[in-house]
Design a protein that fits this description.
Elements lengths: L11 H5 L7 H28 L7 H6 L8 E2 L2 E2 L3 H12 L3 H21 L2 H12 L5 E4 L15 E5 L2 E12 L6 E8 L2 E8 L5 E5 L11 E12 L3 E6 L2 H35 L1 E2 L2 E2 L4 H30 L4 H26 L10 H13 L4 H13 L6
Parallel strand pairs: 3-6
Antiparallel strand pairs: 1-2, 4-5, 5-9, 6-7, 7-10, 8-9, 11-12
Length: 394
């Protein structure tokens, strides 16, 4: 059974029955996302991944669904709950991590930065256009030498009269070659500050990174900033210090907690279906004890991961979320999703390495998801600091 033929209803729907513990509006968002992803992305994603093609023509359709900045209130955004947003991430990443990443870069990073830290004028100008997909944004934090250490920021912004002059470089920036604006974080005399930089500003250059073996159906870029000059009011006044970008990163990490479980579910579905079709020694491999043990163990970790995501989402909606829990969730979801993908591949046998099944694509994508928005090691140290009160970062 090819990827395009997998049923839209997950095998896990009946076994897990997640909807039994969701609210009607949450189920509505989840089903809207599933229908869109299965209808518009799944039939073409293997080909897009193979050809390194980002299907940007889907962006207006995604915007029509209300997914862009959906967790923000006002300014043309849907104002949905954190749990609803998480479910959209899960259903989108069940098809491909790159498309959940697109929704995250737009809503959790670029739009959230303006929403959290911008002026009313900035919000009213940019957010409605971004919610409609008319303007695309990117988030320029990571630098070539910095990686997990944004405090080692070399990009600078210098005040010159009524302007800011920005110089530096960023790397692994999603959507930068397509974006109309970039949220650029730079070191100033006052510490790290954020700026809204239109990408047509002279000196701003974005170049797509080629040679990727992961996230091939999406765009990640390098940015060069050579005396990029923006007006004084381009600064995000509410963001001072690294707490500014970290506030946005936590929004993106939250979406990953749900999204990685979507990739895990897709791999598990593929393994379950194939186990009933593939025969060895005269009977389906799903009838062997070892195969059923693998499926049971994968299901256990998937359900635990989704329940953890739901717990964190409920806390987020209630305003009681302990930020260390975001690290717990991101660490667990991606790590367990990768284990599920690898175990699912064993059930598929040699065919599991082909594009006939989605498992190797998800596995490759999850390696990127494991790295961005904080590596395993960073999140382990965040949790360790919360437990001991001692900082092991330096």
């Amino acid at each position: 059974m090819s990827t395009a033929e997998f049923p839209e209803v997950s095998v896990m729907d009946e076994v897990f029955d997640l909807h039994a513990i969701l609210q009607p509006d949450e189920i509505e968002w989840a089903m809207k996302a599933r229908t869109f992803a299965q209808t518009h992305i799944r039939p073409v994603i293997e080909d897009d991944f193979d050809k390194k093609y980002f299907r940007k023509e889907l962006i207006p359709l995604i915007a029509e669904q209300g997914f862009l900045g959906m967790h923000l209130k006002g300014y043309g955004c849907a104002g949905a709950s954190a749990v609803s947003y998480g479910l959209v991430c899960l259903e989108t990443e069940a098809v491909d991590s790159g498309w959940r990443t697109f929704i995250s870069v737009m809503g959790s990073l670029a739009m959230s930065a303006i929403y959290k830290y911008g002026t009313e004028e900035q919000k009213n100008y940019w957010l409605p256009q971004m919610a409609k997909g008319e303007k695309l944004g990117c988030f320029g934090l990571t630098e070539p030498q910095g990686g997990s250490d944004p405090a080692n920021m070399l990009t600078t912004a210098t005040r010159v009269g009524e302007t800011w002059v920005i110089n530096g470089a960023k790397r692994w920036i999603g959507l930068a070659t397509l974006a109309d604006l970039a949220i650029i974080w730079a070191m100033t005399d006052e510490g790290v500050r954020g700026f809204i930089v239109p990408t047509d500003t002279p000196g701003f250059t974005a170049t797509a990174i080629d040679g990727k073996l992961s996230m091939r159906a999406s765009i990640q870029c390098e940015i060069e900033l050579d005396n990029v000059t923006v007006p004084a009011d381009a600064i995000l006044p509410g963001a001072k210090g690294l707490s500014g970008p970290f506030g946005c990163l936590n929004e993106a990490r939250y979406g990953i907690i749900w999204g990685a479980m979507g990739a895990a579910r897709a791999c598990l579905d593929a393994a379950i279906i194939r186990s009933k079709e593939r025969e060895v020694f005269g009977k389906p491999i799903g009838s062997f004890q070892l195969t059923q043990a693998k499926l049971a163990d994968m299901t256990l970790e998937y359900e635990k991961g989704v329940l953890l995501a739901l717990h964190i989402g409920r806390q987020k909606d209630a305003g009681t979320l302990n930020l260390a829990q975001i690290s717990v969730g991101k660490l667990n979801s991606v790590r367990e999703a990768l284990k599920i993908a690898r175990e699912a591949r064993t059930i598929l046998g040699g065919d599991g390495i082909t594009g006939e099944f989605p498992v190797m694509r998800h596995m490759a994508n999850l390696e990127s998801v494991r790295t961005y928005e904080g590596t395993d090691e960073i999140h382990q140290l965040v949790v360790g600091r919360a437990l001991t009160g001692l900082n092991a970062f330096s």
